[in-house]
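Justification of computing resources. Each target in the renewal requires a structure prediction run like the one illustrated here; the chain below, 112 residues long, is used simply to show the kind of job we budget for.
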Amino acid sequence: MKQRRRELRKNMTFCEKLVWTYLRKKQLQARFLRQYSVDHYVIDFYCPRLKLAVEIDGEYHEKPEQKIYDKERQTYLENFGITFVRIKNEELLGNPDLAFERIEQAVKQMTN
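Resulting structure tokens:
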């Protein structure tokens, strides 16, 4: 998994880079890690303290078989107490501030 995570970090999509630039500034009072693995799954961005996952969904995630896989994966990871915020590429490209606000709201809810 370690090599896979390294590869994913090196080959981040534009939208993933955009979110990482936002998250790594640590303005949220929560430390996020990128390409973090839980069991045999890799999460795009993860805050271990809050057990909060941020997943960026591109066009690939619109395929029916991928939707099924994503749902099963998310359900499995939620059994570890992980909460998900899923953001589509279109949201980030259309209005990144609204997407970032969704992350901020999730962090606030979990820290209160």
